[in-house]
Amino acid sequence: MRVAAAIAALALATVGLGPIPPAAAIGPATSAVTVRKTVQRTFLADGRTTVVDKRNIALTVDQTTGLRSLQLIKVSWSGARPTAGITPDQNSDLAQNEEYPFALFECRGIDSAAHPLSPDTCWTQYGDERFSYGADDPAYPAWRSDAKAAAAERGAIVGAPARQTPQCTSLLFGTTYQRWLPFVGADGTVYPGGVQGCAGQAPEASPANLSGNLSLPSNETFGVSDAHGTGSTNFDVFTAEDHASLGCSSTVPCSLVAVPIVGISCDANGELLPASSRPAPADAPAAAANCTGSGNFAPGQTLPSQAPGDPAVSGALWWSASNWSNRLSVPLTFAPADNVCSLHGSGAPVDVYGSELLVQATTSWAPYFCLNSHLFDLNHVQTPEPQARSLLAQGNVEAIYTSQPPDAPYPVPTVNAPVAVSGFGIAYALDNADGQPVAHLKLDGRLLAKLLTESYPSQIFVRAAYTALADNPLNITFDPEFQALNPGIPARTADAAATLLTVNSDSDVVSALTSYIDADPEARAWLDGEPDPWGMVVNPAYKKIALPVDNWPLLDTFEPLDEYQPGRNDCLYAAPTPYLPLVAAPTARLFSIGLDLQFALAQSQTTCVLPSPIPGSLAGAKLVANGRQASGRRAMFGTVSLGDAAREGLTLASLESRSTVGRGDRITDASGRTFVAPDPAGLRAAAQTLRPDPRSGTWPIDHTALRTTPANAAAYPGLMVVYAAVPTRGLGSMLGAQYGKFLSFAAARGQQAGTAQGDLPDGFLPMTGANGLGTLANFTARAATAVSAQQGAVPPLVAPGPTPSSSSGPAPTASTTPAAPGVPTGATNLGGNPQVPVGGGNGPTNPVPAGPSTRGASPTARGAASSGAPRTIDAEPVSARTPLLGSTVAGWALPLMFAIAIAASAGAIAIRLRAGGSRTR
Amino acid sequence: MFRMRAIFAALAVITAGVLSTAGPAAAGGAHALITGSGSSWSSNAINQWIADVHSNGLQVVFSANGSASGRQDYANKTVDFAVSDIGFQGTDPATGASDTSGGRSFAYLPIVAGGTALPYQIKQGGQLVRNLRLSGETVARIFSGQIKNWNDPQIKRDNNGRTLPDLTIIPVVHSEGSGSTYQFTRYLAKDFASVWGGFSGVGATEYFPQSSGSTVRENGSDGVMNFISSAAANGAIGYDEYSYALGKNYPVAKLLNTGGYFTLPNQYNVAVALTRAVINTDKSSPDYLLQNLDNVYSYGDPRVYPMSSYSYAIIPTAADDSKMTTAKRQTLADYLDYSVCQGQGEMGRVGYSPLPINLVQASFDQILKLHAADSKVDVTSVNVTSCHNPTFVAGNPKANYLARVAPQPQACDRTGAGPCQDNGNTGQLNPNQGGATSSAGGSSSGSNGSTGSGSSSGTGSGRGTGTSGGTGTNGILTAPGGGTTATGPLTAAGRTVGRKLDPTTGQYVLGNNAGGAANGATNGTADGAPVAQTTTLADPQSPSTDIALGVLAGALLLSLLVLPPAVSSRMAKR
Predict the structure, then answer these.
(1) Considering only residues 520 to 549 of chain A, which have any Cβ-Cβ distance to chain B shorter than 8 Å?
(2) Of A359, A396, A614, which is closest to B429 when you measure between CB atoms?
């Protein structure tokens, strides 16, 4: 008995603990950093230094450790000088021309007194962000009068490479001053840059601002400080995975460097220079004029095209000594890269098709599998869930990730084993009246219904012509309901603010989202034709639409033909199509919606691109996405997975869970309504509402119960369970064992929250007893056994008999559990939970558990462990043995070996303990 | 007790260390993010591969802005690679604009096959019609404006006398320069010149000809599919790669082939069709590996989906390409290696068709040019044996297993018969499936070692009704040339490498045995490529398992000998 338990424990540990690094329990919330610094601008004249501006800056970065490739971190600041001459895109190369921007860079290295950071290792995308030149005479740009700069940096030509390329020679002909700022790559390569990068740039760089540049936006940011001197932005972290030249990694730390631009500190007369280097007296007034300016634009004013800001106070000279010495830097550290799996693993990969909700989890799990020589390459092929169910039902794939049971039962006995609990979120990119990102947003079912049903006319020319929508607000930012719930957000016209970007393929996420809307009495009544309290009505094309649906239909057919005219919209003139479906423009992948929200890439396909590639013809003219929204004036919404949102740092709305307000009331605030954020607490509360449904073999989300039960008010309604649906018959022993191993993993080790390989990342609620999900994990553990056995068993959702929470008790002996036919008992009972086939293996295909027949299967150490102490238990033991079942060796030799080894070890320990016990105390 | 547990854990760690035989395979050189643009026809495949290789540390950004834009971006050096359904044309026949690489070096390599499908929306009694059949000529007349209503007699003939509703046809075309437009118009221009030529004026073109009437132009695959499935589009028909319709469970028309059958663009019918694609095998030609599809359109096999084609990656081969670095070339090489090799296995399920081995091998040769350009690029792992590609037939690198096992069309799909009352678009990806048949029965009776056909090669043994299971009413598959019955179910996850066609008997044999057969077969491809080695999968019943277990036992014994002293000495130090 005791030996059996010991063997079980050994088996658990044998497979589990070998290659696994110690669990990292780093929570992202703990790594926020705030730094402060007083920055100033001074003028030197006649030996006297005058402070002309002085600011106390505080800089906060919300996450600084364990960062991953292309993760967004939130950066906020206060005390800065208000920005003037603002440009639409803070990451474009035009943004450097803003006056008093709050410039942010990612730089390789850590700032210290002994080794101060240099602009040389700071990334900028465009050639002109690190090159200054001109043909002025006298040649005294502001940086030549920089009082903080060494004399050598104040010459007319600074930092020029020894040999010029012909292109540079040509482009620089006739210039009177040049300031070169090379970029030094992680491998030591020096890229001199130059005008349009003529002397060589890092491969990631662009010569100049390329419209339609296909890469993602760069991360250097010329942030905008509002009238109060505060600002915030999302900063996109680059790592060596996506940016080899910058080269930040788990072994190469980097820094976020903020340069609050307050203007060049001037020494216009060259008083700090050797006499021979000073400007001629006649030139000093020009030098002073270039250096001492305080800007051409008012705070908040937009930068006119072709009119760059005053260089002395603009972001273009971010690298100058004055600006650089005002920097604040925050060290950043990075998680190990995901790039550990060999491209050519041994053996065929084990594929699971389906749900995009799980992508971040499977991305974390894959390295755990590929690095474990006992396992295999685990591959997640992303398909829409309904397509995956269809593929599984047809026998075209072995296993899928899905959040719903099939419409008709699978033709073979199949378990729906929960592998992760996550959900959907409504992400937004939205700026308040100060142009700063909105931190918290409240949305209810009716607002989501309005966005989805093409009921916002979006443009004046639509509303003017479209009688049915004549009284509706243009988009959500004009909607009094939205304004009441979310004060302080200005109304802005934008197609993307009239819709909720979502997927156009079949999707369980759409099904969950529309179930939520359907369960909201306000939303349902509005969809059925009741105007909202302010008179907004549903688009008649959607009136009384039956929900839920797994594919959101585009039903509007209105064409505002007055707009579809030459010179107004040539594309729609050439080929008129309904306008509002173009505004909606759903897309194929959830992942791409996350990316769109991350960079505020508005997807409404209403921008007509001309000229046509065929002269005189409209062929090839095309409607394209609106593209990136101007920072400070963003307004767009999208459906995303919670996993993607956490990974990318997206901001998510709180969703209404309950309302006690009368449906017809013209609300002015959020009182009487409960909104729940998709945080662990909200997910945990929602998880408490899950109830097993033996008919479907799942734990369905009951949105009606969520809405109507007061106790559920704290539950986040976007919760979704992702199941691995795997047949328990017909896979063959090898595949059955592999999928069984995976399910065992998912039941235990895969629920360990963290950022290490194999961990469950943020955006998922671990299936643990503490989260009220022990039953789900327990079922998955038992399902693993059934999948390994391939005897057609489908275990009951809830284990019968004693609850599996008593982890202290000894494991049951083998004799208490009847073996499945054909399965040798010795191996099966290595801590496992044997399965009893349902209906003898050829019975009904409906995975209905047969209660009485499973009575003999009592919970074991596995079951207990998976709900009680998931962090210490590994996944594989039972199924790891399964492929070996047919072996004669497995039947007796291995247990014997284990027993001998353990006995010997125990003996040795006992001896040692007795001998050395006093010493160890 | 606690102490005991700790010891067991320590024991386990050591044991596992002993048991661990292989660490991760040596990684190649450093990687860097690469960007590409082009074909939206193949972007579902490309994006899946991008997702797959993330855990391998490859960062790839792809923008599906259309083949024409992709080639232009490539020429302008704004991208590291392009994906295009056609090659550079020199001069675009429609626009007269230059269509060259702008002096940038390039090589083409095929990355995936697929069928250009014809998604449509016809509602009859509020329900979507799902089993529309069309001949190519009818398609040509529809898209040239000569047939304007779904109740047209010619459409009625295509559907064997079934009348479709009185509903205006809305042709939906791509507004961007699109490879799918090219494949679509090429097919119509080539095979239905009398109908199409008068309308188009040009042959194949990426820019759909200007037309009046109700033609709708939409940007990109999302735009086309969004419109076709929208409420405004009752009566619409468009064209795009099959995967888009599959993901929406949206109906596509069955297209008449030369053999007289109406077929779907599933992986089998595409694979059969492309056995007649003429690939340029002149390595000195700038069009090396590009396709001529004339014989595809005219191939008389009843299983052919005529509008089948390959899509291509375009990669820079010059050593001095200013856009490229060693790390980028490494990423490109590894990404494409995965795509044309292991990445092919999943393609059939998502609406494409995997490349046959000779094209995989040819693509590998193109990938090696990245190494030729920069010897620091590690291509040692580029190896066809690790592909798990379901098309492979050992010993015959030109053969396509999928084409061999492709099911014959149903009788009701023949011209003059039917139409079939199936859903038109639902799966049927597995030839052994044969409809909603007895997959359950197959699984119970099918295999699991009874004949060895299933268990060794793993996978969906018994999913179908193969002969090994003995229930194969619908699973009788005719192998070309022999009428030999294939044995048992096609495995579902690309593990068909375990099952080989014996070149002498024409019989499919087990992977374990096929090793010998393949080794005997040898020979190379026409261009001298080596023969793929068979990949055998361990048979749990085989003696080798016991050997492995013996090793395991030995390892345990070793731990037994080593551990107690180790523990003792460790404790002694405390």
Answers:
(1) 541
(2) A396
CA A429 to chain centre: 13
**Residue A523 · residue A449 · CB < 8 Å:** yes
Instruction: Give the rounded distance of the alpha carbon of A754 from its chain centre.
Output: 15
Tokens of A271: 């008083």
Q: Which residue has the tokens 């047809």?
A: A394
Please enumerate in sequence order all residues whose Cβ is within 8 A of that of A586, keeping only pairs 6 or more positions apart, or say none.
A501, A502, A503, A504, A552, A554, B222, B226
Report the gap between the CA of A386 and the closest CA in chain B (Å).
8
Q: DSSP code of B414?
A: B
Contact with chain A for residue B551, Cβ under 8 A:
no
d(CA B30, CA A427): 34
Residue A272 to residue A453: CA distance in whole angstroms: 68
* Alpha carbon of B194: minimum distance to chain A alpha carbons (Å): 23
Interatomic CA distance for residues A145 and A288, integer angstroms: 8
Question: Residue A832 and residue A825: Cα distance in Å, rounded?
Answer: 10
The SS3 assignment for A24 reads: coil
Judge whether B224 is closer than 8 Å to chain A, CB to CB: no
Nearest to A71 by CA among A599, A652, A649: A649
Question: What residues pair up with A39 in beta bridges, in sequence order?
Answer: A55
Q: What's the pLDDT score for residue A271?
A: 94
Please give the C-alpha separations between residue A747 and each of A768, A769, A864, in angstroms, as whole numbers. 9, 12, 12
Q: Is A512 helix (H, G, I), strand (E, B) or coil?
A: helix
Q: Rg of chain B over CA atoms, in angstroms?
A: 26
Is residue B92 within 8 angstroms of chain A, CB to CB? yes
Contacts of A397 in chain B (CB under 8 A): 349, 492-493
CB-based contact (8 Å) between A610 and chain B?
A: no
On whether the CB atoms of residues A266 and A43 are closer than 8 A, the answer is yes
Interface test with chain A among B1, B31, B33, by most A beta carbons within 10 Å: B33
Query: Given a cut of 70, is residue A575 above it in pLDDT?
Result: yes
Q: Report strand pairing: A72-78 vs A48-61.
A: antiparallel
B242 near B266, Cβ under 8 Å? yes
Of B24, B350, B454, nearest to A342 by CB-CB distance is B24
Q: Do A901 and B51 touch (CB under 8 A)?
A: no
Report the predicted TM-score, pTM, of the whole model to 2 decimal places. 0.74
Average pLDDT over residues B422-428: 50
* CA neighbor of B362 nearest in space, from B437, B447, B290: B290
Looking at residue B537, its pLDDT comes to 23
β-strands B60-63, B34-38 pairing: parallel
Token pair, residue B64, equals 């599906």
Residue A21's CB is within 10 A of a number of other CB atoms, namely 11
Query: B444 vs A908: CB contact, 8 Å cut-off?
Result: no
Nearest chain A CA: its distance from B157 CA (Å): 30
Give CA–CA dist B445/B489, Å, rounded: 12
**What is the DSSP track for A89-124?**
-TTSTTGGGSBS-EEEEEEES---SSS---GGGB--
- Cβ of residue A730 closer than 8 Å to a chain B Cβ: yes
Q: How far apart are CA B142 and CA B155, in angstroms?
A: 10
Q: Is the pLDDT of residue B360 over 60?
A: yes
Name residues whose C-beta falls within 8 Å of residue A735's C-beta, 6 or more positions apart in sequence: A350, A398, B458, B459
- Report the C-alpha gap between A627 and A629 in whole angstroms: 6
Query: Which band of pLDDT confidence, cut at 50, 70 and 90, is reported for residue A545?
Result: very high
List, for residues B87-97, the tens digit of each pLDDT value: 999 987 777 77
Residue B79 near chain A (CB below 8 Å): yes
Contact status, residue A458 vs residue A539, Cβ threshold 8 Å: no
CA distance A487 to chain B (A): 34
Lowest mean pLDDT among A3-17, A896-910, B507-521: B507-521
